[in-house]
Amino acid sequence: MTDTTFVAGSAAVFRPGTSDAEIEASAMKALKRRTALVRFWQIAILAFVIGMWELSSNMEWIDSFFYSSPSGVLARLYEWATEGTTEGSLWYNLWVTMEEALIGFFAGSITGVFVGIGLGRNRFLSDIFSVYIKAINSIPRVVLAPIFIMIMGLGLPSKVALAFIMVFFVVFANAFQGVREADRNMIANARILGASDWQVTRTVVIPSAMSWIFASLHVSFGFAIIGAIVGEFVGARFGIGQLISIAKGTFDAAGMFAAILLVMVVTLVAEYIMTIIENRLAKWRPQQHVDAQ
Fold this sequence. Notes:
transmembrane; disordered N terminus; MetI-like fold; 293 residues; two-stranded antiparallel ribbon
């Protein structure tokens, strides 16, 4: 029998003489149990919400004309997937939005990281440009959509520009703050050992800022999608935003919810991929074990 004592509602307490292997096994077991419990409640809450929505619509507790129902949303998605939409194939419209969002996401992320690290490492330049960055950042990004469309037209560039702006400031702010929060003692030690500015930035500052940068990337793709869809709202021929706009104009609640659901699924898949990439690039971080609750 494992020589451990578990205290209800708190972390496991191990008696003297417990081996490291037993402690590790107990921690992994507690982590798996907690993960399963979290998954159960996530699925249960989702099932409850969908079930109550369907029941409320069927029992006419809510007006299905305005709120539709889960079955109606799925039926509309199936119709779009098999028969297409009024604006062509569903998959083509989805690809248009994804293309705009992906280009804006990568361009905004890369630029935000480079500018954030560059200004974070150069206090003189950051002092000069800070007032301009604050001024531009104070503008609600969505109001720039009409300007971009007026300048660049209804095509891809205007949507990419809006997605770029939505992503850039989020990534820039986190990269800049991550650089400023780098351990000063480690930087001083690296300089004592003769490291150049570039070596300090590459080996100390950037790894220190990676957690900040990845935290921004997790939410940035959602902002890129928002930028692309808002641009399509203002003016476009294709895209998920255009489908939502048409559904709104025809009072098609099922169509609006179907398009929103599609965007949610795509964004969650992108978040999952981002988590995998982060875990692969940040293997140096120690694994976090949670207490058994």
